[in-house]
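User: New here, any thoughts?
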Amino acid sequence: MQKFPMTAEGLARLQDELRQLKAEERPAVIRAIAEARAHGDLSENAEYHAARERQSFIEGRITELESIIPSVEVIDTSKLSGDQVRFGAHVTVVDEETEDEKTYRIVGQYEADMKTGSISISSPLAKALMGKKIGDSVEVPAPGGSKVYEIAGVRFA
C-alpha cells in the first residue's frame, strides 16, 4: 500500500470532513430526497435530481476519504528545524525576474491549497526546492517558460 506524507493538521482536516459528511451532509441529503419524492412525479422534479446529484457527490467523497486516510503517513513537522527545505517547511522565495516574494508551505498532495499558500510535495516548485538551502537558486519549469527563484527563508512552525 502506498503511503502519503501529510501533516497532522492536514489529517485532522480530512478526518473532520469525513465526520461532517457522514454525520451531517449524508442525513441531510437523504431527507432532501425523501421530501422531493413526496412532491410526486420524479421525472420532472428538479429538487429530486439535484438532491440525487448531491448524494452521489457526498458518497464519492466519503469513499475517497476512506481510502486516503488509512494510507496517510503523518510527518511531525514540530520537531523539524534548520535551513534546508524539507516536508513541512515554510519557504520564502523571491522571483529573480520580478523580485516578487512569496511564502509557501510544502505539504502532502491531499492537503495542498494555493489559497493558503500550501503546495504539494509533488508539485514542480516543491520538487525543485527540496534539499536546497537559503541563498540557493532553483529553476522551475512552467507553462510560460522556466522561472528562477532564490530561497530567501526557510522556517518550520
